[in-house]
Specification:
Elements (H helix, E strand, L loop, with lengths): L1 H21 L3 E2 L11 E2 L23 H40 L5 H5 L2 H4 L2 H15 L2 H13 L5 H14 L2 H7 L6 H32 L1 H12 L12 H11 L4 H8 L14 E14 L6 E3 L2 E16 L11 H30 L2 H12 L9 H17 L2 H14 L4 H23 L7 H22 L7 H15 L2 H24 L1 H27 L16 H4 L2 H22 L2 H24 L1 H24 L1
Antiparallel strand pairs: 1-2, 3-5, 4-5
Length: about 650
Amino acid sequence: YAIYHKHQNNTKDNQDEKYEKKTKGYVKASPAHSTLALVEQDSEDPWDLPELKDTGVPWSALDTKGKVLRVLVSVLKFIILLGLLYMFICSLDILSSAFQLVGGKRRAAGDIFQENSILSNPLAGLVIGVLVTLLVQSSSTSSSIVVSMVSSGILTVQVAVPIIMGTNIGTSVTNTLVAMTQAGDRSTFRRAFAGATVHDFFNWLSVLVLLPLEVASGYLYRVTKLIIESFQIESGEAPDLLNVITDVLTEAIIQLDESVIGGIASGDSDARNKSMIKIWCQTANETILQNVTVPGVENCTFPTLCWVVKNMSVMSNIKKCNHLFVNTNLPDLAVGLILLALSLLVLCSCLVCIVKLLNSMLKGQVASVIKKILNTDFPFPFGWVTGYIAIVVGAGMTFIVQSSSVFTSAITPLVGIGVISIERAYPLSLGSNIGTTTTAILAAMASPGDRLGNALQIALVHFLFNISGIILWYPIPFTRFPIRMAKSLGNITASYRWFAAVYIILCFFVLPLLVFSLSLAGWQVLVGVGVPLVVMLIVVVVINVLQKRKPGFLPAGLRSWDFLPLWAHSLDPWDKVVVAFTAKCCCCCKCCQGSNDDQGHEDQESVEQSTEMRKAAYDNPAMAVEKEVEDETKIELDIIKVAKL
């Protein structure tokens, strides 16, 4: 390595001067690194929307046949896109059913909700809401369980408030997983992951503020109770908009018995002995006269026979369901695992195809028009109205599809390819939070009259929680912390893409399970462990802010984190470990694929080539010097590769 630099010192300076003239606007590696690394300087903001250029033939240059063909292709792509969205929504519905079957009757969501001793702890209730929503992959399902248990008196409204907050957090993991499908391109992944996690940060920040406020003052409970008492609300029927279309396919694959699920949630012991797979779709109740054995001497016609004739209601089965698993003898767990694998396969395939199809459709003038409509603000002084219109649009679209996960998952690829900006995706996500609560409100209004008040109150708690979060984190531009936090995380994941998986595992699994475990140990353990961690986190955040904005306020030793080990304040050492691990795995795979015969053949060719080079170098001394420099260059490149690893 040193010999090579000594040999190149005389010619290096001249080459560097030439490269400086030719590579203006580029960054050149130090001569000490022995090679020139040309990296284009990125003077533009990475969050600026890219120009979506149309590489095809312009419309004006097409003849009549070409124009007709392009229109037909566009219509066909649009139909395929609608079909993929339909399959995506259906796969989410089947995924929810699969999780309920895999969870089993003894580990159903109702069992978790019935632990009143645990739910008396607000943090435990919050975590249970997150975990149950992750389990069933639907905030509508988990919130409907909460509403039914509140209306039946198993849970009080005060206990159910933290659970409703948790369902809001759990539903935001779906679009975060959708962003992972765009990890191939670094810039696209930066925008997509930030567009997905802006929803996460809004929910987490809202909980951090409103949960302590609710524990201290009962803000959500008191306001919603006042609303319920102030208005005379009559019961009605919940809308069934999107399910009318999707049930055609999903009910042909699997149907679950809602009465069994409701019985488990309500603590009915008989429901545990029944399968959650629905067998009979049409039944009838018949009233018959039946002899019933009763105690009491007055009912005895004989000394050993005491009975009375009563009208008994008997359910008779009329028609079986037509789904695939109606006649199967498999247990619920096996059916759930089969549906889980198939639904995940269809879900991931649809997501990848949707992203590819959107990339091919949103080009040229079409993309420019859509991007201009979605991201243009109203003229001054009404520019602030645009964001609120986006909130209304997000709420309306979510109300139509009856799922915030579907809507936010649909806009995540658009953010990734640069059609929607992060600043516009944020109010759309806030609107989706409101839209999903309106369905729960209308569903609660379908409750019986004597249970309507409590059911509607907990549904209004969900609505007021999201409205309060919007008031906290949107009207004033300075308070839109979720956007800045999402962009920071997007920059990190663009540089270290493996960190995206770490974020999902930590925020949605490790952290909730840790808090839940500490809650089971009691308040003393939770406070003793949680308070020092929270205080340390606050101190770290404050120091980071002062280091960037007011470093003079800090002691000299705290103006940077250099006094800590490198692994404690930088992801570079961890990145090297991950790269080395993945490289080792790839090398193992390649070694397994290679055969011994091919390796021996390559070694023989290498020996023959080396022998010929030595003969040529013996006849030509100049070539020998060039060969020596070439060998030293290879050694140097190997050293650089090892250093990078």
